[in-house]
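In the current project phase, the collection of sequences with tokenised folds has grown. One resulting record follows, to show the layout:
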Amino acid sequence: MTKTKGKYLTGVYPGSFDPVTKGHLHLIRRASRMVDRLIVGVAPSRRKGPLFTLQERLSMLRLDLKNLPEKGCEIEVQAFDGLLVEFAREVKATCIFRGLRAVSDFEYEFQMTGMNAKLDPAIETVFLMAADKWQFVSASFVKEISSLGGSVEEFVTPQVAEKLKKKYGKGKKKA
């Protein structure tokens, strides 16, 4: 996918980002090089029972993206609730970016892409393979490691690591 001369392209990268990982940030940076405007859509994910509130996730993402080097375009963070295709239409997106880490991701993403194409064939889904360095990183693993007192600094930014420590009661104690 290349930026089209004379046409303003908007893409959406959706997720729950509970919490945002360095793998997410890597995919966001790559997606930002393919469009003129990228919207990171944060879903409430009530069924998943998120650790962080929607507002906390939005705040963490905004801070991480503010400090993200080598952005290819303007990046916004917005909450959305409902069908992804409807959100993409609202923001006038022409494509939805999805990350793939492993074959197990592909089956779910393949089905979702088929349904989204039925709902709106004008919106393309673009798959970005996770870089080798991030293929094994998931927000679920990061939360589990952090909940057991392990170090997650390699997988998330310092501000997210600190928020995880506080959530799990492993933050710095007041004297």
Summary: The mean pLDDT is 91. The domain at 10-135 is CATH 3.40.50.620 (Rossmann fold). The radius of gyration is 16 Å. The helical segments are 22-32, 54-66, 84-90, 103-119, 139-147, 158-167.
